[in-house]
Amino acid sequence: MSLRLQIxxxxxxxFVLIYIVRHVAMKKLDFRFGxxxxxxxxxxxxxxxxxxxxxAVSHFLGIYDPVNMLAFVGLIxxxxxxxxxxxxxxxxxxxIKRLSQELAILRKDEFDKNIEKNNE
Length: 120
Fold this sequence. Notes:
mainly alpha
């Protein structure tokens, strides 16, 4: 990896890290997602700073080419991100269903009170 590419990657990842921190601070990104993305950015920066680390890890895992290891890790991280987001969507669906039911009960109670008031 050339020095120029290393510098570009490091500077890019610093900007991404600042972007993540700002969004967490403004409550636009949940803290737990911010931590996950921050870890990924830091790992990418570590591989950019020490490219021999990437080669050593890929060799240790028995992967011939470090680029193939990056593609494999990217695939695994993508699957993990999709699964995490699906869990969040499921949790929010349950919460929406519960809130809708509570709202319906409250509206029915209000309607019943208005009917009783009109009958008196």
